[in-house]
Write a structure and sequence with these properties.
Layout lengths: L6 E2 L39 E2 L31 E2 L27 H13 L7 H5 L1 E30 L5 E2 L23 E6 L5 E4 L8 E3 L8 E3 L8 E6 L2 E6 L8 E3 L8 E3 L8 E21 L7 H4 L4 E8 L11 H17 L3 E22 L2 E8 L4 E3 L15
Parallel strand pairs: 1-5, 2-9
Antiparallel strand pairs: 3-4, 4-14, 4-16, 6-14, 7-14, 8-13, 9-12, 10-11, 15-16, 16-17, 17-18
Length: 413
């Protein structure tokens, strides 16, 4: 092996023909010096019609059996396969949390309820403020909504063969040592409870092979003209003549796009019928290796307990008082919260998360209970009796029955 070949323990790159790739500034379809000038293989008997929207086909995988098996990775292919994580030892789980005192949230006054409604009215250009200013309150009923959330931060791993053009990079071949197991490779998320992804080359799994797409020539048949180097002229539809109007009469002339031949040079291969191989990028050889993909996913589910007519989804968007919060590798269900529906929701979601992610290693869990203040304000204005809701520490308002609103652009005071 030449000293200039940077392959460690493997065979040198195999390449013939156009293995060096096209020179800088060259036309993509033009072959390098000394190569055949046009495509010589099978091609259609007639020129194909041009499709300006045609895209180059995607890369193909090499035929089965071309790559040597790597210890511990014998059954993987080019499609990613999920890897079950190491089993979890329940003895590592901490003790359940002790009983805790849950504080009640503050209530609001009649003055605060009116100020919240006036702010709500000011945000709607067609709402009048007179009703908010003059209404008489008949009752304020303060309750609490409970928002329980459970987050499970998991790590999933998949492996698959991958390849890239061989451009002389160092190759870590199996002869350098046994490949580590997929769960033995160190990988750390950038932050807990945030989705992330990283791709890692498994050590000691790489090698160099001739490109299967171009058969180690660096060039393939042009996908647009199918190797003919010419295309059916779309301007004249292959007739060689085009129509034009002069003095109100329709006349014909030689097509200026194809000079009357009905054919045009393929602009993808510049008439050569061949293009640089899209798989090896003209290098004729490929580096193969096993790729480990680590995917971190934060699974979040919640449950809202809210027993008034206020829509539950509004509770998610406001702040409240965090009554309970815990972050540990494995949480225990909450069992001592004053509202039994919260306890049951915690029990069900914790059990669900414990069995839902069999192909992920659970790194951390977090759950909490927020208490959100909700006040239902009953009032009378003129001859109408109605109510609205003030909720969250932001004192948001939900008032679908506000009596003084208009949608026709009129002026209301």
């Amino acid at each position: 092996m030449s000293e200039k070949q940077p392959i460690l323990g493997g065979a040198p790159a195999v390449g013939t023909g156009y293995g060096g790739g096209a020179p800088a500034g060259a036309v993509p379809g033009a072959p390098p010096g000394g190569a055949p000038s046009t495509y010589q293989g099978q091609m259609p008997a007639a020129d194909v019609k041009d499709d300006p929207n045609m895209k180059a086909p995607g890369p193909t995988a090499p035929p089965p059996g071309q790559l040597e098996a790597v210890g511990g990775y014998e059954n993987i292919g080019f499609n990613a396969s999920a890897l079950p994580p190491p089993s979890y030892d329940e003895s590592e789980r901490g003790a359940p949390p002790e009983n805790r005192e849950f504080k009640a949230v503050p209530t609001i006054t009649e003055e605060e309820a009116r100020e919240a409604l006036l702010s709500f009215v000011a945000e709607h250009c067609c709402y009048g403020k007179k009703a908010a200013q003059e209404m008489n309150y008949t009752d304020l009923k303060s309750t609490s909504a409970f928002h329980y959330t459970l987050e499970t931060f998991g790590e999933g791993r998949t492996t698959a063969w991958a390849y890239e053009p061989f451009i002389g990079q160092t190759i870590d071949v199996p002869q350098n040592g046994p490949a580590p197991g997929p769960w033995d490779i160190q990988a750390q998320p950038t932050a807990m409870f945030q989705n992330g992804k990283i791709e890692i080359e498994v050590p000691h799994t790489a090698g160099v092979k001739p490109c299967h797409e171009c058969l180690a020539t660096g060039r393939i048949r042009c996908f647009r003209c199918q190797g003919r180097g010419r295309l059916h002229c779309h301007s004249c539809n292959g007739s060689g003549r085009e129509s034009y109007y002069e003095d109100g009469e329709r006349r014909h002339r030689t097509c200026c796009h194809c000079d009357g031949s009905g054919r045009r040079r393929c602009y993808t291969c510049d008439g050569y019928g061949m293009i640089t191989c899209t798989v090896c990028d003209g290098r004729a050889s490929l580096k193969f290796y096993i790729k480990l993909t680590v995917l971190w996913t934060n699974h979040l589910e919640d449950h809202i307990v809210e027993r008034t007519a206020l829509p539950d989804e509004l509770i998610r968007g406001v702040s409240g008082q965090i009554s309970f919060e815990e972050t540990v590798p494995r949480v225990w269900p909450i069992v001592h919260f004053p509202d039994q529906e919260v306890n049951m929701a915690s029990k069900n979601l914790v059990a669900k998360h414990a069995s839902s992610y069999a192909n992920e290693r659970i790194l951390m869990q977090r759950h909490k209970v927020r208490i959100i203040p909700v006040t239902q304000a009953y009032y009378k204005w003129k001859d109408s009796d109605a109510n609205y809701f003030v909720y969250g520490f932001e004192k948001k308002v939900f008032a679908p029955d506000y009596p003084q609103k208009c949608c026709w652009g009129c002026s209301i005071q």
